C-alpha cells in the first residue's frame, strides 16, 4: 500500500491568475500597490495569513495581516466566479487521478494551504471528491513546510511516512515531505523552478502528469 498526497494549487489546478488577482485587490484595498505576480507565485502553498505577511516582508503575522487575510477570504468567492478567473486542471491531471484511483493498493489524499472550503470546491468541481480519502488544509494544520499535514494524513489512514509520496510544485511541499519522512516528488508545471524544487529536497521531478506513474506504481 502507498499513500499519495497531492498539493492543490500549482499541482492539480492552475490557479495563479485567480490567487494573484484576489491578493492584488486585497493589497490595494489596504492602501498598497498591486504586487507583482512573481511575488504571489512565491507564496502559493503557504497558509494565507503567513503568505500575506511574507509578501509584506514581515517576519510574523500581525493584526493587519489578519485583517487582510479576512478581506481576501471575503472577496475570493466573487472573484472566482468572474468569467476569466477559472482554475482549470493542468493537462493530464484528470486521467492521472482516475488511473491512480482505480488501483486498490493506492490511497489518495490532498495536503494544501487552501481552506477546506476551497479544497472541497476544487475536488467537487472536477469529480475528484470520491477519490480523495484523506486531506489536510490550512484550516487543520500549521502552514507548510511544517510536517503536520503529512503526519496527520498518515495517522488517519494508518500509513507509514516511508510508504507515503508527496507531490507538489512548491519548495514548501518538498520541505514538508522530507520533514515528515515521506518521498518528495516535484512537478515542473507549477510555480517553482526545477532547481528550486531539487534544492528543497525533491527526490525526483515530473515534467508531465504521466511521468508520475513511474514514481508511484
TrEMBL record:
First and last residue of the signal peptide: none
Coiled coil location: none
A Pfam cross-reference name: HAD_2
GO biological process, one term: DNA repair
Residue ranges of the TM segments: none
One GO MF term attached to the UniProt entry: phosphoglycolate phosphatase activity
GO CC annotations, alphabetized: cytosol
InterPro entries to which the protein is assigned, alphabetical: HAD-like_hydrolase_sf, HAD-like_sf, HAD-SF_hydro_IA, HAD_2, HAD_sf, PGP-like_dom2
Name of the protein: Phosphoglycolate phosphatase
Source organism: Rhizobium lusitanum
